[in-house]
Design a protein that fits this description.
single chain; alpha/beta; 8 helices; 5 strands; 58% helix; 12% strand
Length: 222
């Protein structure tokens, strides 16, 4: 008789521009490896060849104004492909998934940033992902001005990074509100601190989550 495969856990990393997601995702990958947890690291928009093509379309600066609804639909088109080809198969196989952004980013950037109706986003969310939600979301938080300064220092800005400060203030406020409304899932990380302090916070959040996973597994085996 084959053993029952335990579904993997889904961890997402969120935040505005310049919060250091790339560096800290590498830190999380090292943590997962140290725990000997099989995982898939991916990103949104993107994660599959088709979704990466959509990402390029979304992020590239262009002369033609991009309709807000077109942007939103492209985000969910990429997400549908990503879920189908990467996220769901990985979770079903028992692997954890570590994803750079997910649907919280859509509520933050398209909902708050673009000031779109959240009801439209929630309808698309239900169509594309059903009941699927991350098990843990780390929101890297930083004052907008500092984050944009870091983004500029990195080099060329993509279409989103070229938005005004007011846009990113709305995005940040939305992320903080998401965390407030879902404290069981979301952990705010103060990303304005030194890298070592940021990663201390991340490690605490991961260890707390790991303990809850272990405790749930122990109860399930009783």
């Amino acid at each position: 008789m084959s053993s029952l495969i335990v579904r993997g856990k889904f961890i997402t990393i969120e935040g505005t521009e310049g919060v250091g997601k790339t560096t800290n995702i590498q830190f999380i990958q090292s943590w997962l490896k140290a725990k000997q947890i099989a995982f898939e690291a991916t990103r949104e928009p993107g994660g599959t060849p088709l979704a990466e093509e959509i990402r390029q379309t979304l992020l590239s600066p262009r002369d033609e104004p991009v309709c807000d609804k077109a942007e939103l639909l492209l985000m969910f088109a990429a997400r549908a492909q990503h879920l189908s080809q990467v996220i769901e198969p990985s979770l079903s196989a028992g692997n954890w998934v570590l994803c750079d952004r997910f649907t919280d980013a859509t509520y933050a950037y398209q909902g708050a940033g673009r000031e779109m109706d959240n009801q439209i986003i929630s309808q698309l969310e239900a169509i594309v992902q059903g009941e699927l939600k991350p098990d843990l979301t780390l929101i890297l938080d930083i004052p907008v001005e500092l984050g944009l300064k870091r983004a500029v220092e990195r080099g060329d800005l993509d279409r989103f990074e070229q938005e005004k400060t007011a846009f990113f203030n709305r995005v940040r406020d939305c992320y903080l509100q998401i965390a407030k409304l879902d404290p069981q899932r979301c952990v705010i990380i103060d990303a304005s601190l030194s890298l070592s302090r940021v990663q201390e916070q991340i490690e605490i959040a991961l260890e707390n989550f790991w303990q809850s996973v272990c405790q749930s597994s122990a109860k399930g085996s009783d």
